[in-house]
Amino acid sequence: MQLAHSAARFGNLRQQSKQLSLAIVQIAVICLFAWAAHAVATAVHSPIPGSVLGLAVVLLALALKIIPEKAIQVGAAWFIGDLLLFFIPPMISVIKYEALLKQYGFNILLTIVLGVISVLLGTGFVVDRVFRFERKLHLKRQMAKHNKEQQALKDKAGE
């Protein structure tokens, strides 16, 4: 039973690592398109941003079936899921508050990094405690069930 459970977890882990590897490769391909399109837009002094040109090239390649949809589906889903991280408002803030960032940028960055680390550590600590509590609860239930079965066997043997 334990071996089957371990094998199932390993198989699931293998599937997850394959999915993650696929996503990383697809994200890299999408970024490569964006980088190449940006380089072309810069080289030809295009008024159209490279990211828009890259998007047009990918759209055209998908429409003409040069690139199959599966080739970028997982990576594109990740980008769409985390689109707010790549959206315009952070860039507008950088442009609008450039002087403030020059003066306090390091302090702001340090505060953000320390805040993120604190949240990660706190979350990890709480999750660890909850898992330990659940494990103890599960073991208590297993012991109670085992003791009940043993008592039933003793009662049956005593008859």
Structural category: mainly alpha
> What is the N-to-C succession of helices and strands?
HHHHH
The residue fraction in helices comes out at: over 70%
**Total discrete domains:** 2
Largest sheet: none
Beta-strand percentage range: under 5%
Number of helices: 5
Distance between the termini: 32 Å
Overall number of strands? 0
**Which blocks of ≥5 consecutive residues have pLDDT under 50?**
none
Shape: elongated
Rg, alpha carbons: 27 Å
The average pLDDT is 83
Description:
There is one protein chain. The protein is mostly helical. It contains five helices and no strands. The model has no long low-confidence stretch (mean pLDDT 83). The chain has helices at residues 2-43, 50-63, 73-81, 89-96, 98-158. It is 84% helix and 0% strand. The radius of gyration is 27 Å and the shape is elongated. The chain has two domains: 1-86; 87-159.
What is the topological layout?
Layout: H1 2-43, H2 50-63, H3 73-81, H4 89-96, H5 98-158
Helix pairs in contact: 1-2, 1-3
List keywords for this structure.
single chain, mainly alpha, 2 domains
Task: Offer a quick outline of the entry.
With 159 residues, this protein is mainly alpha-helical. The protein has two domains: 86 residues; 73 residues. It is 84% helix and 0% strand.
